[in-house]
Specification:
Order of helices and strands: EHHEEHEEH
Largest sheet: 5 strands, antiparallel
Strand order of the largest sheet: 2-3-1-4-5
Helix content: 25-40%
InterPro entries: EACC1
Pfam family, one: EACC1
Number of domains: 1
Shape: globular
Distance between the termini: 12 Å
Oligomer: single chain
Number of strands: 5
Strand content: 15-25%
Number of helices: 4
């Protein structure tokens, strides 16, 4: 399952930071193949204003692992940053720094 991840109200700096974070997470990097995407979710080369990241969920990377990685990135920012995970027509916000919320977020992703 391919999902799009975007940082709400982003100038591009937070998206680049999140992409770098996800690429450092071994399971996300190996199985999720995080990449920059255009507004339609198609992969593109990183330009000035990064807005959407593509991530593949599947056998090697669960929605809970992705949610936990995003939660940990948010906690490292030192300020509130809202991240949206999009799949098909559904959107799931990640606006918590509590790792215990990863399973709840994953359930919402999987049911959207």
């Amino acid at each position: 399952m391919r999902v799009c991840v975007r940082v709400e109200d982003d100038s591009g700096d937070d998206s680049r930071s999140l992409l770098a974070w996800l690429r450092e997470e071994p399971r996300v990097r190996r199985y999720g193949e995080p990449a920059v995407a255009d507004g339609d979710g198609d992969p593109v080369h990183m330009g000035g204003g990064v807005e959407v990241l593509n991530v593949v969920l599947g056998a090697g990377l669960s929605a809970a692992q992705l949610a936990l990685s995003i939660i940990m990135w948010r906690a490292s920012r030192g300020r509130p940053v809202r991240v949206i995970i999009e799949h098909d027509d559904g959107q799931v916000p990640v606006d918590t720094d509590d790792p215990d919320d990863a399973e709840t977020i994953a359930a919402k992703i999987e049911s959207s």
